[in-house]
Amino acid sequence: HAHQPNDVIRTINGVFSRDKVLTIDTMNPTVKNVEYAVRGPIVQRAIQIEKELREGVKKPFTEVIKANIGDAHAMGQQPITFFRQVLALCSYPELLNENMFPEDAKNRARRILQACGGGSVGAYSASQGIDCVRQDVARYIERRDGGVPCDPDNVYLTTGASDGIVTMLKLLVCGEGASRTGVMISIPQYPLYSAALAELGAVQVNYYLNEEKCWSMDLSELERSLAEARKHCNPKALCIINPGNPTGQVQSRQCIEDVIRFAAKERLFLMADEVYQDNVYAEGCQFHSFKKVLFELGPEYSDNVELASFHSTSKCYMGECGFRGGYMEVINMDPEVQAQLSKLVSVRLCPPVPGQALMDLVVNSPQPGEPSHTTFMKERTATLSLLAEKAKLTEQILNTVPGITCNPVQGAMYSFPNISLPEKSIKEAKALGQAPDMFYCMKLLEETGICLVPGSGFGQKDGTYHFRMTILPPTDKLKILLAKVKEFHQKFTQQYS
Amino acid sequence: HAHQPNDVIRTINGVFSRDKVLTIDTMNPTVKNVEYAVRGPIVQRAIQIEKELREGVKKPFTEVIKANIGDAHAMGQQPITFFRQVLALCSYPELLNENMFPEDAKNRARRILQACGGGSVGAYSASQGIDCVRQDVARYIERRDGGVPCDPDNVYLTTGASDGIVTMLKLLVCGEGASRTGVMISIPQYPLYSAALAELGAVQVNYYLNEEKCWSMDLSELERSLAEARKHCNPKALCIINPGNPTGQVQSRQCIEDVIRFAAKERLFLMADEVYQDNVYAEGCQFHSFKKVLFELGPEYSDNVELASFHSTSKCYMGECGFRGGYMEVINMDPEVQAQLSKLVSVRLCPPVPGQALMDLVVNSPQPGEPSHTTFMKERTATLSLLAEKAKLTEQILNTVPGITCNPVQGAMYSFPNISLPEKSIKEAKALGQAPDMFYCMKLLEETGICLVPGSGFGQKDGTYHFRMTILPPTDKLKILLAKVKEFHQKFTQQYS
């Protein structure tokens, strides 16, 4: 409809009426620039189709299979028993008097409750997070990184990793015109980054991952991207997601070292999104934390390079997305800035306490000798092994499809295959004002009920097309999904050739 | 220390060193403008003193009594049994097989779990919140407002009320210079508002509550404030907190009507912070929701005035702050803007699911005939009656102190008494660069261990001084606290006279 000027008063059906105060024309324009493909139009259409199916509308399929989002429990992954026992005990401490829970679960719950105001997870915690949880996080980081020290004062508990990432970007982004803050992000990227940068009005500085070399980072590409950005903005930070989302690669130690040296030389604040740190499947691959490598490079780097690292309860073997737990560690942050960070997080009072409790359990899981250890290890290993199997399966089957090329899913929870699209389909998509891979994914959804996210939602090299699919559906469904994608791709290619 | 230019490289102890990328000079300046007194310097000092006490440092008191924040559980309020039973069941559904929980608790848990992906509170929910929870919220609002219809599509679950308020402000705030968005907030105010406005770079437009008339809103003051603001910015929204924080008043129906007519006439988007809707204690006072009054004014208003109303699990009789549950309802929002709102909330994935579950229980509590109803009502009534008693007690005792004048605590959880400060103390405070009531509260803390928040953290009329104290401490501690405040105030007045 046409937008009326703000002060027009109209009469509709005899009732006095006026235009809105808040309209698409008067609202904050930076919000309009925000996009988030993982929950974008494809997913909205998928939800609509599910409703149509329930209402009896005939479709060429009987259910929607969602592989659009890294939501493990929604795909049938079972929670870790120990974690949920402790959370139940924290929620309803009367259960501490029952004999149904193992002693280690009770002990963890008692310890967490003792650290809560009034012994209740219903009290606000300190804004930075519960003290003892931050201490446990620090010890976890030290173990993970072979003894590199971690100060609990540098650990901030967060509402999922997204919250920490946005908070750090808020501190960094300012300036106008050519001195506007630029933030380097990988392409393809996880769209939280582009969305947050759009909202903050920062300049998004793209560096491209090398698809030919299994989505690795090239130093020359970082240099190109930075040099170009410096012509029109003030690049201050470099974001890395490792293991990669949406691309599923695991960066080598050498690559991480290169990135750190680059950041040091070019004076960039490093942001390392390491939420998939347990999700490493490929042989020869290993997770190296940015912090560990930073300290191995010696004091010239470890005393200087500013780094924020993010983790979460939502991924790895836990998959506890709904609790919105997470933490960030800041390293070499200017003390005055850190005071500002602490003040900033206090405005939102505290991260959800059940999520903090869960984060504690992740970093302080049952130890050998404790009654829950065996079950915990069995569950953890089973989940990670199954994910490794599904990663392999996905890569193998996709690579049997002519016109689809899929890099190994070395880690994380996604494959991001390259799809060849016939010229005719690209033209038809463009005529509809759609990205060609959006056109492809929308057709896939309508014809097969499979919900994937087009590569254009993550960014990709011009002229290339991809989709992101999670490896999370149960194996039988994953096989159906992959078979359907294969069949669809062949049909689609024929149809538009 | 002096701030070096960014590109200076120094050598400290023989190690190559450089200035930080992110310093107090290069960081986002809007973050520096953020202040949040409720967790400000007084509270930080209180935490330090607690530590000193634990370490055996001698003080003229043995414990810190915190009355700085509306954190009921931390002050010993017990959670509602039914809520926690359902939360335990949701966390560890194995408990559904046990005989220890009442059937209504099990039914609620089953219903919530069925609405979760994979039957797990560990799955992401829809970004707007779980469907059935939003439906329950809508029915609750309809009951509360005597049948005024509520569309669940207009309900957004949030991470506490703060999250909803900041999200709405994000949509509203834009423009530069004289067309920069202004947002009207009461003075005194809850500092989330000033903090969010500072962070977004909006113009804070103050209107003063009338302390002489029990902190009521005066139409003439709203008009004055708006007229002045229009000279230098574009005022678009009017925020009201009712029942009031920090001032504890309950607005009359007439006052709300006046505000709505004012907003309609002046074309302002209304934001009603109604998180204390069950916290009404004074005789003759009643909570009137802005939505209900809006609809009672007829279609000229109910079809036009844009309103967002906020609620939370953190206050009322629940006091479940740690779960970060909440909702907002938007009324008469432009559909295009609402689509932008839905997109914006999707970037942060979803509010914490345990908090959503808790919000559901609040709006769908045990009904007559259900096994938990009697206990629930007993617990709810006991908590609210106790708060009413403590509200009265606080007002009465404070008003016995010469130099302290306290309005009735009609609702919410705070008293905000006016304190007369001797000229000499004001001079001494100013010499130290402190607000006079900050000087007073800091001294109170050091000498008595009582932690209150100075009025200057909320805003107040020039030349007046206040503090905010919660009425939440257990009655015996509240009496000690009030006696100590009385004694301190007399001593302080003498000392500086």
What can you see in these coordinates?
The structure is a homodimer of 497-residue chains. The first copy, chain A, is globular and about 65 Å long. Chain A has helices at residues 29-32, 41-54, 81-91, 103-114, 131-144, 160-172, 192-200, 219-230, 253-266, 290-296, 299-302, 335-346, 353-363, 373-398, 423-431, 436-448, 475-495, and strands spanning 9-12, 15-18, 65-66, 155-159, 181-187, 203-208, 234-241, 269-273, 307-312, 325-331, 404-405, 414-415, 418-419, 450-451, 453-454, 467-470. In chain A, the strands form five sheets. Chain A has a seven-stranded mixed beta sheet with strand order 4-10-9-8-7-5-6, with helices on both faces. A three-stranded antiparallel beta sheet of chain A has the order 12-16-15. A two-stranded antiparallel ribbon of chain A has the order 1-2. The two termini of chain A are 39 Å apart. Chain A is α/β, with parallel strands linked by helices. Helices cover 41% and strands 14% of the residues of chain A. The model of chain A is unreliable at 1-8 (pLDDT under 50). Chain A contains 17 helices and 16 strands. In chain A, helix 5 packs parallel to helix 13 (353-363) and helix 14 packs parallel to helix 17. In chain A, strand 5 (181-187), helix 7 (192-200) and strand 6 (203-208) form a beta-alpha-beta unit. The first copy, chain A, has two domains: 32-76 and 376-495, Aspartate Aminotransferase, domain 1 (Alpha-Beta Complex); 124-363, 3-Layer(aba) Sandwich (Aspartate Aminotransferase, domain 2).
